[in-house]
Amino acid sequence: MLDEYFQLALNRIHVSFGSSIRRPVHIKRQGRIFEIHVDKKIIYAPGMRRWRMYRNGIDMRLERVARRYGLHDLSPTERDEWVIDIGAYMGEWTLYMLRKGFNVLSIEPDPLAARCFERNMNLHAPADSKWLLDERVCFHEKRGSVTFYSEPVNADGSIFPSVKHASVPLTREAARLDTIIGDRIGEKRICALKMDAEGAEPELLMGAQNLLAGELQIGIDAGAERLGESTVEECKNILINAGFRLIENPSGDIVMAVSDREKEISS
Predict the structure, then answer these.
(1) Using CA atoms, how far apart are residues 178 and 176, in angstroms rounded to an integer?
(2) Among 9-13, 95-99, 141-145, which stretch is predicted with the lowest mean pLDDT?
(3) Does the pLDDT value for residue 267 go beyond 60?
(4) Residue 37: its pLDDT value, please?
(5) Which of 20, 103, 149, 181 has the fewest C-beta atoms lying within 10 Å of its C-beta?
(6) Alpha carbons 23 and 14: distance in angstroms, whole number
(7) pTM for the complete prediction?
(8) Is 51 helix (H, G, I), strand (E, B) or coil?
(9) Starting from the edge strand earliest in sequence, which strands make up the sheet with 33-38, in order?
């Protein structure tokens, strides 16, 4: 933690010497939650180190997250259009999409991250926006509960224990993604899925057959979080078999895809 205060001091020096990009950042702690103050705004985070991502301002951080998943240039084509944010954490992509006019169903099973998410939505979500938070774990089987390994400080919570950080096992309610969607928004139109499941991406996709039968764009962080192994190839195979076309991108850990229904119909 001392190193973070040192880095905060360095950031203030950059700002004082006229950096055109850096913003002054201050931190206040409320129990296990950190208030990150930047540009006279506040964003809530489960870990102090998260402030580094906001040195260039909140808006730039939100856009950077959206661009990372290839889901930054979408716009609603009809009223009451939804997107799904899995592994919503503190709500960065959710906020970005709410500002663009989408409704968002966000899924975050880590209790501390979910509390930060709620605070950020209550503070930053547009007044007329519609968002829902579900704290169940997405799974591929019909199961009442699973062990979820909580590690909110480094955004490393998963059904698989982290190989990088110490985690705390919690018993959390679990359901298939299709079930969660049906429970919360019924048959509303869904046009995008963003996923960061820390290694559990294949299980999640296997519980989303109904969702994958629709027309949508997908961005998945499939990096080496499954006990140190990547799920990129597994995710690609599942999506291809479900009728999706993969989108090339420079990040090997991010799987991007779009449903290829028009091609199927024409053939």
Answers:
(1) 5
(2) 9-13
(3) no
(4) 95
(5) 20
(6) 9
(7) 0.90
(8) helix
(9) 25-30, 33-38, 41-45
Stated length of the chain: 267
183: enclosing H helix or E strand: helix 177-185
Enumerate the domain spans of the chain.
1-61, 69-266
Cα separation, 132 vs 137, whole angstroms: 15
Mean pLDDT score of the chain, rounded to an integer? 90
Spell out a b/e string for 9-34, using b for 16 or more CB atoms within 10 Å of the CB, else e.
eebeeeeeeeeeebbebebeeeeebb
CA pair distance 163, 165, nearest whole angstrom: 6
Per-residue pLDDT of 235-247, as tens digits, reads 999 999 999 999 9
CATH number of 69-266: 3.40.50.150
Name which of 57, 67, 49 is nearest 19 in CA terms: 57
Q: Show the DSSP H helices in 70-143 as ranges.
A: 92-99, 111-124
B/e letters for 134-144, b = 16+ CB within 10 Å, e = fewer, are bbbbbbbeeee
Quote the CA–CA distance of 120 and 13 in Å, as a whole number: 28
Structure tokens at 192: 């995008």
Q: Which one, of 105, 120, 122, lies nearest residue 62 by Cα? A: 120
pLDDT digits (tens, 9 = 90+) for 116-150: 999 999 999 999 999 999 999 998 877 789 999 98
Q: Which amino acid is at 77?
A: T
Q: Could you tell me the two tokens for 123?
A: 């503070």
Structure tokens at 199: 């290694």
Residues 6+ apart with CB under 8 A from 197: 86, 87, 138, 158, 203, 204, 221
In angstroms, the CA 203 to CA 199 distance is 9
The one-letter code for the residue type at 210 is N
